[in-house]
Amino acid sequence: MIVTVSDLMREMEEISPIELAEDWDNVGLQIGNPEDEIKGIVISLDVTPKTISTAIENGCNMVLSHHPLIFSPINCIRADEYKGMMITEAIKNGINIYSAHTNLDASDVGVNVQLAKKLQLLNVKIPEKTAKEQSNEIRYVRVGELPRAMDELELRSHIEECLSTNDIRLGGRSVGNIDKVMIACGSGAGNIELCANMDYSVLITGDVKYHDYQRAEELGVLLIDAGHFSTEIPMVQALKDLLTEKYKGRIIIESHPAFYYIPAGLK
Ligand SMILES: [Zn+2]
């Protein structure tokens, strides 16, 4: 059975509808031809030279990334520049590149939901708008209950164990016993106000800056930096599993902790 890029685009748009993306984002098919037959897929968080070479070496002509390769407008495509080299290599080798970014963060099966699963959160949901908080950005976070009440150090160990990382930082306000949290995958410290307005006292995210901790202290929030990569990588495995379901009977092989591919010959 022939599977084309447009088939996969349709599947991806079911998983992560384009309209869920932020206005500033750039998602969807970035490079390629919807009519191409897919020979194999590399799934990764980022498009790097290694992603492109992994695709070439494994006969894959489709890259599915979370972070878009083309994000800001580009003025030229030069093979002697970092991004231009990847774009040139992709086009030369007939590699299609599709990115699902903030639309995948917001999706019901997306990055935040997969992070919540990894953290063993219960009753995971998008918080309901309150009189205090009417933000439209609410779809980019989730809230949930911890499997049991924990103090701050227990929560840190829990996150370390669940996400297989020992690079966790805590800051802001000490809040004692914790039974529920807000999560925002990737660079989500911008949600401190949302967290406080929603009466949550803990925000787990990544890429936290020094002054974010000060703001968290001011607003009475315990801010936890669990790392951009660690909070988003669960999605790569989940996307592989979701596509395995969709592409029943076809083999998907992992090639690297951050990369997965469906080998050549999706037949
Ligand atoms: Zn990210």
Describe the structure.
This protein is 34% helix and 22% strand. The chain has helices spanning 5-15, 49-57, 82-92, 102-106, 111-118, 152-163, 192-197, 210-219, 228-246, and strands at 28-31, 41-44, 62-65, 96-99, 122-125, 142-150, 169-172, 178-187, 202-206, 222-225, 253-256, 259-262. Helix 5 (111-118) crosses helix 9 (228-246). The longest helix is centred in the C-terminal third of the chain and has 19 residues, at 228-246. The structure holds zinc ion. The site of zinc ion (ZN) has 4 residues, from helix 9. Zinc ion is lined by residues 67, 186, 228, 232.
Task: Tell me the number of structural domains.
Answer: 2
For the largest sheet, list the strands in their spatial order.
Answer: 1-4-3-2-12-11
- Number of beta strands: 12
SS-derived structural category? alpha/beta
Mean pLDDT: 89
Series of secondary-structure elements, N-terminal to C-terminal? HEEHEHEHHEEHEEHEHEHEE
CATH class wording of the largest domain: Alpha Beta
Q: In the CATH scheme, what's the topology name of the largest domain? A: Udp-n-acetylmuramoylalanyl-d-glutamate--2,6- Diaminopimelate Ligase, Chain: A, domain 1
- Count of runs of 4 or more consecutive helical residues: 9
Radius of gyration: 19 Å
Low-confidence stretches: 249-263
